[in-house]
Amino acid sequence: MSRSARAFAAAKRYLPGGVNSPVRSFRAVGGAPPFIRRGAGAYLWDVDGRKYLDFCLSWGVHILGHNPPAVVRAVRRTLADGLSFGAPTELETQLAKLLASAIPSLEKIRLVSSGTEATMSALKLARYYTGRRKIVMLEGGYHGHAEQPEILRAPFNDRPAMEKIFARHKNKIAALIIEPVPANMGVVLPEAGYLAFLRELTAAQKTVLIFDEVITGFRLGWGGAQNYFGVTPDLTCLGKIIGGGLPAAAYGGKEELMSLIAPEGPVYQAGTLAGNPPAMAAGLAVLRELQKPRTYQTLQKNTEYFFTELSRRLPPDVQLNHLGAMFTLFFTAAKARDYRSAQTSSLKKFARFYHKLLRAGVYFSPAQFEADFISARHTPAELGRTLEIILAALAA
Ligand SMILES: Cc1ncc(COP(=O)(O)O)c(C=O)c1O
After folding, report:
1. Domains of the chain by residue range
2. If both were cysteines, with which of 77, 245, 331, 370 could 349 make a disulfide (CB 3.0 to 4.6 Å apart)?
3. pLDDT confidence of 186, banded at 50, 70, 90?
4. Is 240 known to be catalytic?
5. Spatial contact of 233 and 253, defined as CB atoms under 8 Å apart
6. Which of 20, 57, 112, 142 should be mutated for ligand 1, with most atoms under 8 A from CB?
């Protein structure tokens, strides 16, 4: 029995399913998950000493790879002065200022500790601001695990369906929350003009448009999806990359809305560890690396060849969706353009493919309806090698 298998059995004694977040349990692909001992650059090592080229990257967190020296140095410096004070620090303003400079729609920002907190707080704010209860989400969209009442679901990329919901619930919808590029049904791209259409539709009924950029923020480039597509939401949620591997997330937007947040306004939202110094230091260090033009340029150059070659050489019953440094392979002949078409992917084929990759030392996100990610530390040689491993696994 491997040490990972023993560790998983021991974990199951105390943790539901042996994990602290369900998708880590490998239910979607079967088998026992490798337990990880350490990460460096583009690689992970498990407790049995196996080495993997990592395309999960803590679910999109590590755009600079694991343990980037500049980030580790910044966190170490902060640790020397203490872990958490529950009192304001200058680092919080520095991070907020940098986020606002990258994403101009962030007139004011509240820092929180997880993406779930960011989205649930943004929804609470939108409900208070509009005095309405209903929230529209997309089929297959994920915005954290908080339970939300009065949710209406619409298929992605379907304008008539969305118009129908807004007509039926006219002036009763508090917010439309959307991942501008959904990654939680696998990566699916918005069709031309779809996000601008949502902007117009929501503005016409004074519905708050929330972009959940927990994944896309700083993944699609400096300024996130809203900069990439040129569509400005009322509120934006961020997470993952902005904490550099420590718990930090944020929501923010128009002054008019954000001034309703306590203590300026009546919408109560608080956090013992919100804006805690090591997380702020990590986030700042990551963003400062991303601000150097060569970081995104390198990422773009390295991924371009990988995606072009992969698209060209895939068999016709496998589809690649990708944008920026994120992608998903679907095991279907139909292009995934919404949740329903994504669901035509064969989960059995995905699971077989997944384990072939794992045996070859390539760690993908262990579920079909998730994204895989590439970091600035994945070299062209590593991506080229991965390309051949993927194609061999598909051919076998
Ligand atoms: C788009 C999106 N929103 C929100 C969340 C929730 O973030 P967290 O896991 O930090 O609570 C996630 C998590 O994967 C996400 O992908």
Report:
1. 3-67+293-395, 69-290
2. 331
3. very high
4. yes
5. yes
6. 142
Q: How far, rounded to the nearest angstrom, does the alpha carbon of residue 4 sit from its chain's CA centroid?
A: 27
* Pocket perturbation via mutation, ligand 1, pick of 210, 215, 238, 326 by most ligand atoms within 8 A of CB: 215
Separation CA 106–CA 252 (nearest Å):
5
CATH fold group of domain 69-290 = Aspartate Aminotransferase; domain 2 (3.40.640)
Q: Which of 52, 54, 124, 240 is catalytic?
A: 240
The model scores a pTM over 0.90:
yes
> Tens digit of pLDDT for each residue in 302-344?
999 999 999 999 999 999 999 999 999 999 999 999 999 999 9
In tens, the pLDDT along 93-125 reads 999 999 999 999 999 999 999 999 999 999 999
The CATH label, of 3.90.1150.10, 1.10.8.60, 3.40.440.10, 3.40.50.720, for the domain at 3-67+293-395 is 3.90.1150.10
- The closest of 346, 6, 46 to 186, measured between CA atoms, is 346
Active site residue 212: yes
Q: Name the residue at shortest CA distance from atom 8 of ligand 1.
A: 115
What pLDDT is recorded for position 396? 82
Ligand 1 atom nearest to CA at 141 = 1
